[in-house]
Amino acid sequence: MGQLALAAKITHVPSMYLSEFPGPNFGCREAAINGHKEIDRRCRALGVDTLVVFDVHWQVNSEYHINCGPEFGGTYTSNELPHFIKNMPYAYPGNPALGHLIADVANEMGVKTRAHSDTTLELAYGTLVPMRYMNADQHYKVISISGWCDWHDLRESGRFGLAVRRAIEQRYEGTVAVFASGSLSHHFADNGRAPEFMHKVYDPFLEQVDRRVVQLWEAGEWKTFVGMLPMYAEKCWGEGDMHDTAMLLGLLGWDRYTAPVEIITPYFGSSGTGQINAIFPVTPLPAEA
Question: What share of the chain has pLDDT > 70, as a percent?
């Protein structure tokens, strides 16, 4: 059947788009952009046809939701940071069939999920920013999944991630990459101090915890990380409560996953938040998963 070819935790900071334009921030996010381009290169080499994004900028209050419209297009301005992302054009094909397969499997597993293909739902910039650098030529179909889940349990989000894996491997005829699009710590600079933190993390405590987390990832210490994930998400203001990361780990085996990550773009600070591009090697699921 289908194949999960690549999984990654990726940044989507809006300063990536800002850095394209002349001015004081021109070129400042070249490393992050190049990281996306490298992930794209690997996806193409693996024959990936669809990119599934767990997007922490799509907030939902009940159930899990999949935006699997047949196509996406328009001009996007961020209502959060309209001076960073404005008038950004986009156009990508969707994949309704895979979206509904994911919802079917999740519901069968008891994880209430809805796939939206007949919809006017738009994409959020947690999906749009990565797609700009990975999919400008519309090479891939795109599915966006809500990753800002305020009233959900992280373990249930792990179960949802497992459902995504099962749908791909057991029911889909194709090759897929899955991205958790979100930060590590996520405390923005206080109002009026944004320029000061353009390339910094908000507090040394947050940066030190983030760097320790990256060490755990590089060592494949997933049982330790999963154990600390709820407290990490709470105390370090994890973006979207870090449900994107929980989904990604559920996709890979949760606390029984053992592979070390490959860092593509090293950890960096952006507007107070901690960011990274890292590939999580896809390994066989544990037998009891």
Answer: 99
